[in-house]
């Protein structure tokens, strides 16, 4: 596929889909509840100790649920959708998406100088025994630093992300802070820290770049709007 065709496809996953605020709130609630249920199922799957016949029964029920959910579905991804009320939604996002049970999910608080997030990473995010997987930590940082750039109105895609793991992060509650350190043209340099009750566990820095294909119209839309 040519670069032009790829860029065109990529722009296409940023779509206008105008939905009245009340209806949108209802849809968000339904999506959030379903994702919460499936997230609980994932956790139960990792930790269960029931006998094989109970697992067989659970699989039957899960199969039925999968079939129901598949009756109507989006083609490949949810993408990002823009509303005329000044919001946009990326509900499939792997870290924040309210439709996505893989997402921990991260819910950021935005301040003028930084973004913060508190989240509980349970057994489904394990790497070394009892500790959070390093790749999950990297993903959390990627999103947090990216969110900081978006909040500072200099959003971009991750060009480079570097992490220093200072000590193991025990499964459980984590606190992450991220901020924009400086901006050079289309590049925003962001930093972040992850801590727990044990203190500082990891630090990150990254470069976030507004890609060529998004400069202009899509950039304006992302900059002008808020959402989840
Ligand atoms: C609207 C849509 C997008 C934004 C909306 C996001 C909003 C919402 C954010 C929510 C938070 C998301 C947080 C998760 C973020 C991911 O997960 S992003 C997914 C992982 N990253 C990727 O897939 C990126 C893949 N790479 C690319 O798309 C492109 O190579 C890049 C990195 C965007 C570069 O784009 P490009 O248009 O080729 O850039 P180009 O004009 O050649 O270079 C611009 C400058 O950047 C430098 N540069 C290029 N590549 C790199 C690199 N990898 N490292 C360091 N510097 C580099 C160049 O040297 C140049 O520097 P100067 O000469 O200006 O000094």
Automatic annotation (TrEMBL):
Identify the keywords attached in UniProt to this record, alphabetized: Apoptosis, Cell membrane, Cell projection, Cytoplasm, Fatty acid metabolism, Hydrolase, Lipid metabolism, Membrane, Transit peptide
Q: Where in the cell is it found?
A: Cell projection, Ruffle membrane; Cytoplasm; Membrane
Reaction catalysis annotation? hexadecanoyl-CoA + H2O = hexadecanoate + CoA + H(+); tetradecanoyl-CoA + H2O = tetradecanoate + CoA + H(+); (5Z,8Z,11Z,14Z)-eicosatetraenoyl-CoA + H2O = (5Z,8Z,11Z,14Z)-eicosatetraenoate + CoA + H(+); octanoyl-CoA + H2O = octanoate + CoA + H(+)
Q: What is its EC number?
A: 3.1.2.2
Pfam families recorded for this chain? Answer: 4HBT (PF03061)
Membrane topology designation: Peripheral membrane protein
Tell me which residues make up the Thioesterase domain.
Answer: 130-200
Please indicate which superkingdom the organism of origin belongs to.
Bacteria
Q: Which family does it belong to?
A: Belongs to the THEM4/THEM5 thioesterase family.
Protein's name in the database:
Acyl-coenzyme A thioesterase THEM4
Q: Which organism is it from?
A: Gordonia pseudamarae
């Amino acid at each position: 596929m040519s670069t032009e065709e790829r860029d065109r496809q990529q722009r296409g996953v940023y779509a206008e889909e105008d939905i009245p605020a009340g209806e949108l709130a209802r849809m968000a609630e339904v999506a959030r509840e379903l994702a919460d249920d499936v997230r609980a199922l994932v956790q139960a799957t990792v930790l269960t100790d029931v006998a094989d016949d109970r697992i067989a029964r659970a699989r039957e029920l899960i199969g039925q649920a999968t079939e129901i959910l598949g009756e109507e579905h989006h083609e490949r991804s949810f993408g990002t959708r823009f509303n005329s009320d000044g919001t946009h939604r990326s509900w499939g996002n792997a870290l924040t998406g309210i439709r996505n049970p893989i997402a921990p999910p991260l819910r950021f608080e935005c301040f003028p100088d930084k973004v913060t997030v508190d989240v509980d990473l349970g057994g489904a995010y394990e790497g070394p025994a009892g500790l959070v997987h390093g790749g999950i930590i990297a993903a959390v940082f990627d999103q947090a630093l990216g969110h900081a750039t978006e909040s500072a109105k200099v959003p971009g895609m991750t060009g480079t992300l570097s992490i220093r793991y200072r000590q193991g992060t025990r499964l459980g509650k984590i606190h992450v802070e991220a901020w924009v350190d400086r901006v050079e043209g289309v590049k925003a340099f962001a930093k972040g820290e992850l801590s727990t009750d044990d203190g500082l566990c990891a630090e990150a820095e990254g470069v976030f770049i507004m890609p060529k294909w998004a400069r202009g119209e899509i950039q304006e839309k992302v900059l002008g709007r808020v959402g989840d």
